[in-house]
Amino acid sequence: MKKTMSILTVALLVLALLAGCGGLTTQTTTTPAPAANENTPAPANNETPASEPAQPDEPAETEEPPKSADGYAPFVDVQGVTDDAIYVGNTAATTGAFATVGVPFNAGMEAAFKAYNDAGGFDGKAVKLVHYDDGFDGAQGLAYTQTLVEEDHVFAIVGNFGTNTVGANLDYLKEKGVPMVYAATGIEALYQEGATGNAKVVYPVQPIYNAEGRVLLARALADKDSGMGLGGTKVGVIATTDDAGAGLLYGVKRQAQDLNPDIVYQEVDAAATDYSAAVNVLMNAGCDVLIACMNQAPLATLMASMRDAGYDVDVVTSYVNASVATLGAFVDNGSITENRHVYSTAWMDTSTEEGMADYLDFAAVMSAWELENGFSGSEYVLNSYAMAGYVAGGMFVQALTALHDQGLALDWYSFNDVMGETVFKVPMGGTIHYHNGDRLGITSLAFNTIQINEDGSYAMATVAPIDTLENVLAAIK
C-alpha cells in the first residue's frame, strides 16, 4: 500500500526522535562572555580533557549571594550580561553522526535569537550563543558546560542537547544555580514536582515520559463522544521495563492516584518477541482500552500479539510512536483494523489556524537567518530539528520579554521568578507553565491517529487538537 503524507507533517512527526537525542555550526565557538558583575572573579581557566569532565579551580573567596525565600542561592549574583549582550550557551553534536540533528537544532535557536535581536533585544542587548561541539558524549558535554559557566560566564544554558549531556549536566547546573531552558530529551531526571531552591533552575519543554504517562491515562478515560479521549471503563496498561516504559508507567500510576480508575497492569521485556501472555491477561480481565508504555519496536510486538489473539480494543501510546512508518506498517500487517485503532499524543500541531500561523512565523524567521548566513533560505524551513531549536530559543526570548515588560532586573533571581510565574506559549504547540515548582515538560498535547486516505495513502490525523491536561481530565465521566 502506498504511504505518503505532507512534507510538513513528516517534519513535525520526526520531532519524536528528539526524545533520545538532541544541536549549528560545524566549528566550535569560543567567543568569551564577560561576567556582568566585575567584582566577582572568574575561576582560573583549565584545560578541558577530551574524555573526562574538567575539575575547575575553586573561585576566589567572595561574599555569598543571598538566598531567595525558597532557598535559591546561585554561586554568584548573575553573570553573562554586558552593556550590549546577553550570553547563553549550549553544547551539542555538530559534527559526526548526530550533526544532522545538532546543526539544524542550533540554527533554529540562532534564528529565534536573530529575530529578537533585530527587534531591539533587551534594551539593546543582543542574545548571543556560545556553543561547543560535544560529539554527543556526556562527559565531554559536562566539561564544556563547566567551561560555559565558569570561563565563558554565560547567563543561561539554552537548548541543553541530548540524553547523554543533559543527564550529565543536571546536578552541576542545580549546584551552581544556573538556569537551563529547554532540554532536547525527555529523560526521567528532568521530572520534578514542587522544585525549590537551586533545583528549580531546570525548565524542560519537550514531553517527559513521566508526565506524558499522566496524559495517556487521561486520554484513555476521557469521554469519547466529546472527542477528548477513548472513554475507557477498565484500562489495561502494558509497559516495557526499559527507561521509556518505566517513565510512562510512573506517569500513569501518578495520575491514577487522583482518579482511582479500574486498571490492570502488565510489565514486559522490551526485547521480547511475543507479548501474548500479557495480552491474554488484559483481554481476560475485560480491559476495554490499552495504554502502551513503550517505544516503536515493542509496540510492533504488542500490536502483533493483539492481532493474533483477536483482541479488538483501542490503544493509546506516546508521541514517540506517532509516525506514518510505524503505524502504517500496522495497517499493512492487520494489526490496525476498524475495531482496533492506535492513538498517540503530539506536542506540535499545525492542523489549527494558530498552529499554522506559528509555523509560518518560524519559516519566515528561519529563512531570514539562512539568507544572512549563506544558506539558500529554504534549507531548514521544513526541518523538524530546526523547529525544535526555534522553540528552545523562543522560550528563552519569551522569558526575557516578560522580564522586560515587568521592569525587573536582568538577574537570576528575577529570571527564575518570571519563569515560575509566566504561562508560556510554545511555538506550534500548546502552553506550559512552571508554577509551584513543577517541572513536568509540556502536558498540553494533541491526540492523533493514523488515517487511510481514499487513494490508499496514509496520514496522521488530528482527533483532538492540543489541549491542557486539566481540560482532558475535566472530560472524564
Keyphrases for this structure?
477 residues, Rossmann fold, 17% strand, 13 helices, 2 domains
| Main sheet strand line-up | 7-6-8-9-10-13-14
Low-confidence runs: 1-14, 20-61
The name of the CATH architecture of the largest domain is 3-Layer(aba) Sandwich
Average pLDDT confidence is 88
Number of DSSP strands?
14
The tally of helices reads 13
Helical residue percent band: 25-40%
In CATH, the topology of the largest domain is named Rossmann fold
User: How would you sum up the global shape?
Assistant: globular
Secondary-structure element order, N to C: HEHEHEHEEHEHEHEHEHEHHHEEEEH
In CATH terms, the superfamily of the largest domain is: Response regulator
Span between N and C termini?
A: 39 Å
The CATH class name of the largest domain reads Alpha Beta
Q: How would you sum up the major sheet?
A: 7 strands, mixed
* Rg from Cα: 23 Å
**Tally of individual domains:** 2
Outline the structure in words.
- The protein has two domains: 7-207 and 353-437, Rossmann fold (3-Layer(aba) Sandwich), CATH 3.40.50; 210-346 and 447-474, Rossmann fold, CATH 3.40.50.2300.
- By secondary structure, the chain is of the alpha/beta class.
- It contains 13 helices and 14 strands.
- The model is unreliable at 1-14 and 20-61 (pLDDT under 50).
- Helix 5 packs across helix 6 (243-259).
- It has helices spanning 7-13, 99-118, 138-150, 163-176, 209-221, 243-259, 276-284, 296-309, 324-332, 353-372, 384-405, 412-421, 469-474, and strands at 85-92, 126-133, 156-161, 180-184, 202-203, 235-240, 263-268, 289-293, 314-317, 342-346, 423-425, 431-433, 445-452, 458-467.
- The strands form three sheets. A seven-stranded mixed β-sheet has the order 7-6-8-9-10-13-14, with helices on both faces. The protein has a five-stranded parallel β-sheet with strand order 2-1-3-4-5, sandwiched between helices. A two-stranded antiparallel ribbon has the order 11-12.
